[in-house]
Amino acid sequence: MSDFQKSMYELIVETSTNLPHDVRRQIERAKQKENAGTTAALSLATITKNIGMADEHVLPICQDTGMLTFEIKVPVGANQIKMKRDIHEAVKQATKDGKLRPNSVDSLTGENSGDNIGEGTPIIHFEQWEKDEIDARLIMKGGGCENKNIQYSLPAEIEGLGRAGRDLDGIRKCILHSVYQAQGQGCSAGFIGVGIGGDRISSYALAKEQLFRETDDVNPNEKLADLEAYILDKANTLGIGTMGFGGEATLLGCKIGAGNRLPASFFVSVAYNCWAFRRLGVKLDPKTGAISEWLYKNGEKVTFPEDEVAATAEEGANETREVVLEAPITEEQIRELRVGDVAVINGMMHTGRDAIHHHLMENEAPIDLNGQVIYHCGPVMLKDSDGQWHVKAAGPTTSIREEPYQGDIMKKFGIRAVIGKGGMGPKTLKALEEHGGVYLNAIGGAAQYYADCIKGVEGVDLMEFGIPEAMWHLRVEGFRAIVTMDSHGNSLHKDVQLSSLERLAKHKEKVY
Ligand SMILES: O=C(O)C[C@H](O)C(=O)O
Ligand code: SF4
């Protein structure tokens, strides 16, 4: 099986860089629904441009290359120990080549292993079957959408929907609520896999398993097929939209599986996957380990036009105001910004995510941050032979994790703008108002699109936190992000959350 390692390397690279055909078709469908010129349409155009760029340059679609999970079916007698070793080598190589971000972090020390190999990572499941061939599938599910997974234990009281009992209607309420509670934070429009029954663990496993179904298949169980169609239809009336900016496309796929449960337990588990739905598979010759067939590549491969972002921006030009910002930014400049404006950033910005925010609470900053822009981002970086760093992927990370720190840090260091995704909460909103700060929402997952705006890496501090968590000093040009929280107490996120809750409550009445 000399080719097995090579095949696994190909599977990893392809999964990270080339979105499956069925996923592309769903994104295209969502695009048709959005009205040209709206923020939702502009965001979707950025997403599709990013998909094209990743494909063309063979680079990660999103900088968070996720928790690598391999599901492998093998004929009797296959050497699983050797296969596991080969997968580890392939993962290390793909990390070295910038196709994967080093994503394996020691939970106790915080140390990043640097090569994606660590206690429990990557996840590899083997199962024997009676067929002669090997079937290897891989899903790379990012941390932001993983954080939006949710598990319900019925009966339960569901926000907006009331009592959910141990029946199909109770299940319906849980699933609808799961989409509402994710808002835009898992980089909507997303896909969900649902597991009904089992114990807590197998229920979640069943949910994740559903994500391996083709997005346009039909559930053989009629009741579940009906529920899937219902959820897809109704979730798209919630008005959460792409990145939670409001709009028509909130959910792109819903797949539900059911297993038996214990008499005393009734779990409904939901695995939320962002639009950057990276899962592929291959069939392999068991003797050589060579790829004989790719999975999830049947039907039309939609490719997206390159110039659509510019065209969509133009169509919306009458409704949105563009403001150019370059650090150091003054309080007056910030006070002029309103929710809905598009900020175009030139000059310097500095990355800072979980470890940096935690660090800055207690320590001084490594550089003067007065009037500066902080970017919630953990990029994929590669060093060349001259010791110069290059950005390989650099989209935003979920900002809400910094909610306990952000306001204090902005005030302490005089930071004027933070860029991230998914929005922040009341504490930050209040600080923006008091201090004169702004929150800018970049398009989650658009890691190639933003990497292209980064024209130079001027340095790095706090590398001891690992590549994704270090503070990178980046020089950018034409980096576009939308003002979604301003210094006048306005928050698009708050508004969308409230209006989507009202819409959710319309589905309170019994359906099943
Ligand atoms: O870790 C990241 O870079 C992003 C993460 O997947 C997120 O969605 O917040
Ligand atoms: S940043 Fe968004 S697109 Fe990327 S892994 Fe996280 S949730 Fe998915």
TrEMBL record:
It catalyses: (S)-malate = fumarate + H2O. GO terms for molecular function: 4 iron, 4 sulfur cluster binding; fumarate hydratase activity; metal ion binding. GO terms for biological process: generation of precursor metabolites and energy. Residues 289-495 form the Fe-S hydro-lyase tartrate dehydratase beta-type catalytic domain. Residues 94-119 are annotated as: Disordered. Its cofactor is [4Fe-4S] cluster. Keywords: 4Fe-4S, Iron, Iron-sulfur, Lyase, Metal-binding. It is an enzyme of class 4 (lyase). Its EC number is 4.2.1.2. Residues 6-282 form the Fe-S hydro-lyase tartrate dehydratase alpha-type catalytic domain. It comes from the Bacteria. The keyword DNA repair does not apply. InterPro entries: Fe-S_hydro-lyase_TtdA-typ_cat (IPR004646), Fe-S_hydro-lyase_TtdB-typ_cat (IPR004647), Fe-S_hydroAse_TtdB_cat_sf (IPR036660), Fe_dep_fumarate_hydratase (IPR011167). The keyword rRNA-binding does not apply. Residues 104-115 have a biased composition (Polar residues). Homodimer. NCBIfam families: ttdA_fumA_fumB, ttdB_fumA_fumB. Belongs to the class-I fumarase family. Catalyzes the reversible hydration of fumarate to (S)-malate. This is Fumarate hydratase class I. It comes from Alteribacter lacisalsi.
